[in-house]
Amino acid sequence: MVCVLMLMLLGVPAGAAEEGGGKLNTSQIVVGHIKDSYEWHVTDIGEKHVIINLPVIVKSSTGWHVFSTARFAEEPDAKGYRQGPFGLAIATQGDNAGKVVEVAGGTEIRPFDISITKTVAVMFIDAALLLLCILIPARWYRRHKASDPAPGGFTGLVEMLVSYVEESIVKPGVGEGYEKYSPYLMTCFFFILTCNLMGVMPFPPGGGNVTGNIAVTFFLALCTFVVTQFSGSRHYWKDIFWPDVPLALKAFPLIPLIEFVGIFTKPFALMIRLFANMMAGHAIALSLTCIIFVVAVIGGPTFYGMTALSVLMSVFMMCLEFLVCFIQAMVFTMLSSIFIGLARARAEA
């Protein structure tokens, strides 16, 4: 019972623990938790699935359609489709598994899809929560003077974080004129931190793997890329296309080529680092919990010993995840500020 409860708290259906003669399908559980979906599965109560139905917004060959995921069939048909309205369905196998498709003449066609998936819904919740976390302390500052005693409680915690990011990350990384980049870098830090912490929460409104979604980290890295390039000084571009190297190396543009490729590898590293670390953390935490069910068929002392070890390791991993949430937000902000600072560097006199 305790083992099943742990999986339920992690957002995993209890029924998914057994498949094919009582064997645990660990890959299905782990991947099912990490990947995005059109429905927000909360838990199972007996045979009943507790699901938050989300809006599907697609443009197919018959036009725009907006409807709830509740209109899709719960079980796939013989061809592997969860049939829905307007000739649309959710594929359960093949290249488009888990996606809304339009089946025409036996061919799957992906419609233009801007549906509110689980990741998008959690991201909206995280953004709203972040606004509250910033506006509440801002209200305190509007009502108090600079000479008043320092705030305590939640407002004091936010002030401490803002001061730390400003003085220890943004200012040293960007250098002179850092003030105009603080709003963007602060937004990156607090948005990533909020999404990371909410992702560790095993039940709604948390539980979404936002920063473990490569589309989200790609957009964040793209924003840093754009800010960096538009902040580039004349010296920055000169060092890329006409560096201070021997003339022979300028004639054979190996160094400019390497520097030009470096423009794109830096944001790529930002994207992959955040995505891989957060996705791996969720996968490891779930895998450790699944150990209980893997050894359940053995029984006896082995089962109880591995269960205790699994619980201890899971608790340790969840505590480590809280630390990783802060570290990854700090690293992304720090590297972004350094990249911007390097682009703004001027030639020494």
Automatic annotation (TrEMBL):
Residues 1-16 form the signal peptide. The keyword S-adenosyl-L-methionine does not apply. It is found in: Cell inner membrane; Cell membrane; Membrane. InterPro entries: ATP_synth_F0_asu, ATP_synth_F0_asu_bact/mt, F0_ATP_A_sf. SUPFAM superfamilies: F1F0 ATP synthase subunit A. Keywords: ATP synthesis, Cell inner membrane, Cell membrane, CF(0), Hydrogen ion transport, Ion transport, Membrane, Signal, Transmembrane, Transmembrane helix, Transport. This is ATP synthase subunit a. GO terms for molecular function: proton-transporting ATP synthase activity, rotational mechanism. Key component of the proton channel; it plays a direct role in the translocation of protons across the membrane. Its main location: membrane. It comes from Prevotella dentalis (strain ATCC 49559 / DSM 3688 / JCM 13448 / NCTC 12043 / ES 2772) (Mitsuokella dentalis). The chain crosses the membrane at residues 120-138, 181-203, 210-231, 251-272, 284-304, 310-343. PANTHER family: ATP SYNTHASE SUBUNIT A (PTHR11410). It is a multi-pass membrane protein. F-type ATPases have 2 components, CF(1) - the catalytic core - and CF(0) - the membrane proton channel. CF(1) has five subunits: alpha(3), beta(3), gamma(1), delta(1), epsilon(1). CF(0) has three main subunits: a(1), b(2) and c(9-12). The alpha and beta chains form an alternating ring which encloses part of the gamma chain. CF(1) is attached to CF(0) by a central stalk formed by the gamma and epsilon chains, while a peripheral stalk is formed by the delta and b chains. CDD domains: ATP-synt_Fo_a_6. The lineage of its organism: Bacteria, Pseudomonadati, Bacteroidota, Bacteroidia, Bacteroidales. Belongs to the ATPase A chain family. GO terms for cellular component: plasma membrane; proton-transporting ATP synthase complex. Coiled coil: none annotated.
